């Protein structure tokens, strides 16, 4: 699953926002999400798996705990795609603006 598809789901976006503040143990993520509404630990585990497979988060094991954090490489790939799209549209919008200004002058 690609990054954007993974982030189409609101719970996964919430997890990413949490991890944007600091790395968290899986249990802490479950607790925070349960405070926001009812979600099971297995459901959170599945969401974390999707985010990990999409390259947006990484996990390290500390004893019995799994600690999740953002994966900068995954976010960099998204940033690069957004920059390409933004660059394409910025130049197109500049051309549109010029054309509209020329039309205004012709009137």
From TrEMBL:
PROSITE patterns (alphabetical): HTH_ARSR_2 (PS50987)
InterPro entries linked: ArsR-like_HTH, HTH_ArsR_DNA-bd_dom, HTH_MetalResp_TranReg, WH-like_DNA-bd_sf, WH_DNA-bd_sf
Tree of life domain: Bacteria
Coiled coil: none
Protein name: ArsR family transcriptional regulator
Pfam families: HTH_20
SUPFAM superfamilies found in the cross-reference section: Winged helix' DNA-binding domain
Organism: Niveispirillum cyanobacteriorum
This protein's UniProt keywords: DNA-binding, Transcription, Transcription regulation
A molecular-function term among this protein's GO annotations: DNA-binding transcription factor activity
